[in-house]
Amino acid sequence: MSSHTVSLYSDSDILVVDKAAGILTIADRWDPVAPTIFEELGRSLGEAEAKNLLVVHRLDKDTSGLLVLAKNAETHKVLSKAFESREVVKVYHALVRGEPEWKETLCDYPLRPDGDKLHRTIIDAGHGKPSASEFRLIASFGPYSLIEARPRTGRTHQIRVHLAALGFPIVADPLYGDGKALYLSSFKKKWRGDEYAERPLMARTALHARSLAFAHPRGGEALSFEAPYPKDFKASVAQLEKR
Q1: Residue 233, SS3?
Q2: Which of 31, 50, 189, 243 is the most buried (most CB within 10 A)?
Q3: What is the pLDDT of residue 1?
Q4: Are 92 and 209 in contact (CB under 8 A)?
Q5: CB 108, CB 131: distance < 8 Å
Q6: What is the Cα–Cα distance from 120 to 123, expressed in whole angstroms?
Q7: Do 71 and 12 meet the contact criterion of CB atoms below 8 Å apart?
Q8: Which DSSP helix (H) or strand (E) runs through 211?
């Protein structure tokens, strides 16, 4: 897992970063002491500059990858509208449990956030908001698969809920899966290591915001960014490919 967030692009209007897993986009009322993106960026950019950044969209705490932040109110307004009107192309990669029979599929179950006692997003045909996620099978590794996700809408935990509903929960997802970490011993034949000393390949929800494409909020220039896999995701995929 990457230990810190990396700035990828910056101008007078926007900042694009590769967020590390384990960092909140904004403060969480359920975990008030957890570190946020603003604290991290304050150390690298300076507290004054970080304090003025505005959140346009969010990534879950355990999700790594691309995040764009606005540097002024006008940019925030334009980018927020672009996200809402689906003008921003977002692509995620997820390691899931199971092997889909499909190569591509669309999941459009309506979703309602904070729908149960665990504050999870739930599928609710009567009161849920319209939601849609496109999925593509990138590779299968027997009991695990690598999936590309393109959310058409931006509901809370949308990709995680939709994949779980299709029968392919994301590896190590504590809310919508079994929360179990991925270990080499769980899939490598003739593994002879010490199970008590083994460290997990993936111990957090295995979701990575892989790429973002959008028009610059001021000049309209087409921008696209790609975030490489962090260490844990890269190692997990590499070991599964060897299988």
Answers
A1: helix
A2: 50
A3: 41
A4: yes
A5: yes
A6: 10
A7: yes
A8: strand 207-215
Residue 131, CA distances (Å) to 121, 146, 169 in order: 12, 22, 18
What's CA 94's distance to the chain center, in Å? 8
Q: For residue 28, what is the DSSP state?
A: B
Q: What is the pLDDT, as a whole number, of residue 66? A: 98
Q: Which residues partner with 170 through β-bridges?
A: 96
Overall fold of domain 6-242: Pseudouridine synthase (3.30.2350)
Number of residues that this document lists for the chain: 243
**What percentage of the chain carries pLDDT values higher than 70?**
96
Determine the Cα–Cα distance for residues 139 and 230; give it in Å rounded to an integer.
Answer: 18
Find the helix or strand (DSSP H, E) in which 93 lies: strand 89-97
* Catalytic residue check, 60: yes
Beta-sheet pairing, 222-226 with 133-140: unpaired
In the structure encoding, which two tokens stand for residue 197, read together?
């000393």
98 burial via Cβ count (<10 Å: 0-12, 13-18, 19+): middle
Q: Compute the average pLDDT of residues 152-156.
A: 94
- Confidence label for 196 from pLDDT (cuts 50, 70 and 90): low
Q: What share of residues in the chain are helix, strand, coil (percent, to 5)?
A: 20, 30, 50
Average pLDDT taken over every residue of the chain: 93
Distances 185 to 15, 79, 94 between C-alpha atoms, Å: 40, 44, 20
- The residues pairing with 208 across neighbouring beta strands, listed in sequence order, are 64, 93
Question: Reduced to 3 states, what is the DSSP secondary structure of residue 91?
Answer: strand
Q: How far apart are CA 165 and CA 105, in angstroms?
A: 13
